[in-house]
Amino acid sequence: MEIPECLKKYTTKPSDCPKYDENNPDYRCSVDYDKSKYRINKALQESKNKTVPPSTICGYINEFLSLMGINSQAVMINGLDILMTINYEHIKRLYKLNEQSDIIWLRFTKDGYCGTIGSSNDINYSYDTNSGKIIKAINKEWNNFIIIIVPIPGIKNRKQRLLIEHMIGYYLSDNKNVPIIDYYSHFLGK
């Protein structure tokens, strides 16, 4: 996968990002073990910024995909109970994906914030995950009737998928000023 010069910045992590390392844990990665509430405090900062409509975010993602030379488009599903309607095998066949997990997704809060960016075939609205705990800690709720899915055809492995997830999140927050409540979620992929 060739990364254009104009997007190489988004392959890095912000200097304030917690570093996931099994051998030298940074407790800021986990909401449960972090006494400083690092990720929750960042979520509070993000929630002070103006929301960006999901349809606008789709346009920004499509711009990113075009710059990357990825032949895909962001798909917004709105008005349906996502967990009742999502069919990963159908998405895989429809978008000619190598694996069901070759998708990036963005979940939203009921008041319109992008709550988190993730990847793989594990979309959920649990409050037991780091993202869910952050959403709950700042008195927000998941909106399980809207999601953006970004099928990524032609990727070779999980590492590429995580890189694209990372880059989309950083591109949206840094280049387009999209507030992301669980700001660090897309940087912490293993």
Structural description of this entry:
- This protein is of the alpha+beta class and 190 residues long.
- It has one domain.
- The chain has 6 helices and 4 strands.
- Strands 1-4-2-3 form a 4-stranded antiparallel β-sheet, with helices on both faces.
- The longest helix has 18 residues.
- The mean pLDDT is 89.
Major sheet characteristics:
4 strands, antiparallel
Kindly report the average pLDDT value: 89
The helix/strand series, from N terminus to C terminus, equals: HHEHHEEHEH
| Beta-strand content bin | 5-15%
Distance between the termini: 19 Å
Helix share bin:
25-40%
Spatial order of the strands in the main sheet?
1-4-2-3
Tally of alpha and pi helices: 6
* Number of discrete domains: 1
Looking at the structure, what is the overall shape?
A: globular
Poorly predicted regions are none
Secondary structure: number of strands = 4
Structural class: alpha+beta
Query: Radius of gyration, rounded?
Result: 16 Å
Question: What is this structure's SSE topology?
Answer:
Elements: H1 38-46, H2 54-68, E1 75-78, H3 82-85, H4 88-94, E2 103-109, E3 114-119, H5 130-137, E4 142-151, H6 158-175
Antiparallel strand pairs: 1-4, 2-3, 2-4
